[in-house]
């Protein structure tokens, strides 16, 4: 596939939580709803930013470990997960907002002929609800949640399937993400990856091993151009 004029990558895939959208306020509220039910202390925004990245279930498990002791009984975790999903689904976009320049950047790439997609470890129904609430759903060729594929990130199949549904090709794709999960996924897929420094991760963005790090979406176009030149 030939690349659109002026654009080094024709398929640009974004992670959602902590990359395109700052969902921490609503994730914190939902997590604290569950922690309160479990008799635990609430977590703050900074803590939530370190719990997210491997899906809601793992975030709940990490939150329980952080606020006392791990919960290992599957039936209790199932119940907590159901409570989280119900609360979060009802309050999906009370405080979540796209990061600065995120939407503008997506629009610019699309205007230049790129395909854009979302590859997220959020469940599909929540992802779709959030994208609709933010009025962003029609800006992506494919939006692929964790339970829409046989194996989620860091399994590279999740990224490959997103690119396939976008109508793109792995050879001209790039992933933009915020966590170790995203970098591992891209590496396993053999696809370049750019990390954002404002997302949700325990490991600092510069230590994730991404091909480049951006501090603002306004830097993304230049970072992609540099990446393409260094790969050429
Ligand atoms: O829901 C999560 O834990 C992470 O979601 P993300 O893959 O969009 O960062
Ligand atoms: Mg993320």
TrEMBL record:
The active site is at 15 (nucleophile). One of its GO terms (biological process) is glycolate biosynthetic process. Mg(2+) binds at residues 15, 17, 178. It catalyses: 2-phosphoglycolate + H2O = glycolate + phosphate. Transmembrane segments: none annotated. Keywords: Carbohydrate metabolism, Hydrolase, Magnesium, Metal-binding. This is Phosphoglycolate phosphatase. It comes from Futiania mangrovi.
């Amino acid at each position: 596939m030939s690349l659109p004029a002026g654009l080094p990558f024709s398929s640009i895939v974004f992670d959602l939580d902590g990359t395109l959208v700052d969902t921490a306020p609503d994730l914190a509220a939902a997590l604290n709803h569950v922690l309160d039910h479990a008799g635990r202390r609430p977590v703050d925004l900074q803590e939530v930013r370190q719990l997210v990245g491997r899906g809601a279930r793992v975030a709940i498990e990490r939150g329980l470990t952080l606020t006392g002791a791990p919960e290992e009984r599957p039936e209790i975790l199932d119940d907590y997960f159901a409570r989280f999903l119900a609360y979060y689904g009802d309050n999906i976009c009370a405080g979540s907002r796209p990061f600065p320049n995120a939407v503008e950047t997506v629009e610019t790439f699309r205007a230049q002929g790129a395909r854009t997609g979302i590859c997220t470890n959020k469940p599909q129904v929540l992802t779709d609800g959030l994208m609709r609430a933010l009025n962003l759903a029609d800006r992506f060729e494919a939006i692929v949640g964790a339970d829409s594929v046989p194996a989620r990130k860091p399994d590279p199949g999740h990224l490959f399937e997103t690119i396939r549904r976008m109508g793109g090709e792995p050879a001209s794709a790039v992933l933009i993400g915020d966590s170790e999960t995203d970098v591992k996924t891209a590496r396993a897929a053999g696809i370049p990856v750019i990390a954002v420094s404002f997302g949700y991760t325990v490991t600092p963005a510069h230590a994730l091993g991404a091909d480049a790090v951006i501090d603002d979406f306004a830097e993304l176009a230049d970072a992609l151009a540099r990446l393409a030149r260094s790969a050429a």
